[in-house]
Amino acid sequence: MTSSSGKIALGSRRRLKNRKISNFVMLFLTGLLTILALVPLFWIIGYVVYKGGPGLNLAFFTQLPRPVGIAGGGVLHAIEGTLIITMLAAIFAVPPGVLAAFYAARNPNTRLGIGLRFSTDVLAGVPSIVVGLFTYAFLVKPMGHYSGLAGAVALAILMLPTIIRTTEEMLKLVPQSLREGSLALGAPEWKTSMNVLLPAAFNGIMTGILLSLARGMGETAPLLFTALGNERYDIRQIVTSSIQGKQGFFQMVTRIINQPMDSLPLTLWKYASQPYPERVAQSWTVALVLMFFVLFLNIAARLWLENRARKLRG
Amino acid sequence: MRKNLFVIPAILLVASFILSACGANTASPAAGGVSGSNGTASTLQAAGSVEINGAGATFPAPVYTDWAYSYQSVDPSVVINYQGIGSGGGKKAIIDGTVDFAGSDSLLTPEEYASGKDLGMFPTVAGAVVLIYNIPLAKGVANPATPLPVLVFDRQTLVGIYNSTITQWNDPAIVALNPAWKDYLPAADITTVHRSDGSGTTEIFTKALTSFSTDWKAGGAASIEWPKGNNVGGKGNAGVAAAVMSTPNSIGYVEISYAISNKLVFASLINKAGKTVVASNESVQAAMAEGKFSDKLTATIVDGASDGAYPIVGYTYLVLHTSSMTDCVKAQKILEFFKWAETDQNASARAVTLGYSALPDSVKTIVLAKLAEVTCNGVPVLK
What we know:
The complex is a heterodimer. Chain A is mainly α. Chain A has helices at residues 2-52, 58-62, 76-106, 111-125, 128-143, 148-173, 176-184, 189-217, 221-224, 235-244, 249-257, 264-272, 277-313. The longest helix of chain A is centred in the N-terminal third of the chain and has 51 residues, at 2-52. Chain A is globular and about 95 Å long. The termini of chain A are far apart. In chain B, strand 13 (375-376) and strand 14 form a beta hairpin. In chain B, strands 1, 2, 3, 4, 6, 7, 8, 11 and 12 form a 9-stranded mixed sheet that branches. At the A-B interface, helix 2, helix 3, helix 10 and helix 13 of A face helix 1, strand 1, helix 2, strand 2 and helix 8 of B.
């Protein structure tokens, strides 16, 4: 009796030991693979900093490009272009995207709701270059010129699916009871959406919007046929010349957004394929700046949202 | 709280304006207010008030961009933007009317002339296409005591290599042309590298091959069906150069400006006159000097007959609407810019520095005369 119970104890001890070993091995393996998964990220960041870092200086952010062989110059035109195009794209994509998501979340089983979800998924799968060509045919050609505006429309089309899907998912996470409570207190449907659903899902919606912005910021292909690129784009000069020409505010804004524009990824692509080594070196610095922009957008969004959540909790 | 929705756009907007304000003192050389060189009306117009957009061939993009930059101090009222999107893209854009002018290395086809109605082509600069190669020494062969000279090909051999009728580096035809390489050319298969994208460089190169020998049956165009054999494609000059560097015993063709600025060694060629020529500004000039223009102001200048002419040379062209432009201020600014680019000494010098060849005087005269025929609303643009 005692001997057999001792055997059991011995067996379970051995089993425990085996478990501990396999636990350790698996933990070690998962840890190792996690590090491996992180390697590309840090490798990319490290390599871009290594290659692009030496070219970084204030002039790079504040000057227009100079021709090959003349030292100095920067990518102010591309920074301005990126900011304007991304901002315009957000203005075009966010309101319709969020509103469509409200509809889809409220009426998931109507014909329109199902159709919306289906077409959003299809749109998300359309290659970005096709969106660029589409915008060329339907906007650039009729307007008779390339423009940052057309680039923003192309980016907006690309950003829409992400915004609609994330917003919809976030709205679905809001407890049904909150909505019902609001309706029971006599609030109309629209007020419930604006004052109950939107605040409750706000953080998630913002995250989705910012992710889609970050994605749009890094796009090259849709801009090739729409924004074209413009090494001489300079808001300061446009504003000065508008004022000297006594043009109105509306005309000035039109001139700012309605002409060919560069963006950081577009500049990176063009510089990297130029025959001059100094341009290729600059393209690494452009990559660094672009990466910094996207990282900044991501991190700032995280910090802001966390801060906000903390405040809401009291 | 809903105000927060606008925080990020607001930050972006403010940031962009701050950045542009920082650039105020340094952004453009025109800020100093240098007046127009020849007392035209341009001095009366606000700086940067005329925006001109062009797009097309990537080959001349660096020199056009360079000229546009220098031109700011000649005429501050005009901002010229040129984007290298490829000759095909440029031709499509000017036909669609989405740019003010286009650049192209490849000639307009009759169909394109028909759909573009009044399009005209004007040569701006020329350049050579050179052959780069990568031949490692065979195993067991000692390094040569003195560096080997650059390889030399004649026209027939080059066609043979790209036709895959000459398949090994130690082929007698190649050895005969390169006696110094006799012990060093390996018994290895030749890999030929070509542009995978449609390209004016390919058009110049294949037109030259067509002219070199009747054995070349694949024709001369921006992209062709390459003869079957040991060949690979690369995208752009960089792609071809990378393919040559990474493939032992390969040969490829790139624009001379690319080869020079990246310090690539390129082969010399024996031209029609039987002389060995190195691609250079002089040998390109010699090729241009004997070129005959068609009534469309286009010329194929490959395989020139004179002693000094490098045989694989091509013009790059400005493409314009010659009578249907309606914005006459813009039309005038475009023509003045290109007239300046052709006549200004510094502009030509910059082109040569960047690896291009400026037009010889005889060609310039023809081009300027043709530019003077361009009209806007029925009135000649250049006075």
